[in-house]
Write the structure tokens for this entry.
Amino acid sequence: PGKKVLIVYAHQEPKSFNGSLLKIAVEELTKQGCSVTVSDLYAMQFEPRATRNDIVGHLHNSEAFNYGVETWEAYKRGGLSKDLVEEQKKVQEADLLIFQFPLFWFSMPAILKGWMDRVLVQGFAYDLSKAYDGGLLQDKLSLFSFTTGGSKEKYAIRGDIRYLLWPMQHGIMHFCGVKVLEPHICYAPENVSEDKRKEMLTAWTQRLKTLWKEQPIDCSPEWYFK
Ligand code: FAD
Ligand code: ZN
């Protein structure tokens, strides 16, 4: 109770399976006494493109635009665009970040990738010598909750699904100092029976009930590639 959760949600349709997973998380965590904030990226029409519009006022170097340098400088002088400042505030306040999305091309949908690109600015999320265990967003947890088109069996044949979590969990969250909980994967909701779908939704509710007792994974190459 009292924990703050930010759910960054990337699905267009509230009636979707992802929409149902989001609803469950909001309900269950609220019931536990957590305060839950949702960034519903499509509903917000969140801008995924990293452009100079993200900097308010003068550029550090207007001769040759460098997005990383400009957002870093803008962060330091309080000159990032309003939508970014709002998302950073939500991240700063959260104890747990849940990312809820359908798998797109072995990765996250562009709108969510854009959130990562634009919100996790240098100076805010990491700094020159402050990355991985020293990242600036320490004492926070993250959880990637996603759905797939492919079945669990197909993923077992094609290769471990953990490979594709390396960029997301290690390359982004761990880089920023955020600890990573076990991912939550619902395989092929479109192609299983209604009973199986209900079962997967119940499993998510059950997991959330004991979530705060979980230990983060050991986010090292062994977890992904052993
Ligand atoms: P939905 O179609 O919304 O839901 C499935 C079913 O569940 C629907 O019938 C819905 O009505 C039902 N449902 C919703 N709520 C409930 C409820 N409460 N109780 C019971 N039933 C419910 N897949 C891969 O595996 N790998 C990829 O690389 C990949 N790349 C993709 C790239 C793109 C551009 C796209 C568009 C898709 C890709 N996919 C890939 C497939 C994608 O991951 C799946 O389509 C998606 O994960 C399915 O989730 P959904 O929420 O959209 O399902
Ligand atoms: Zn890691």
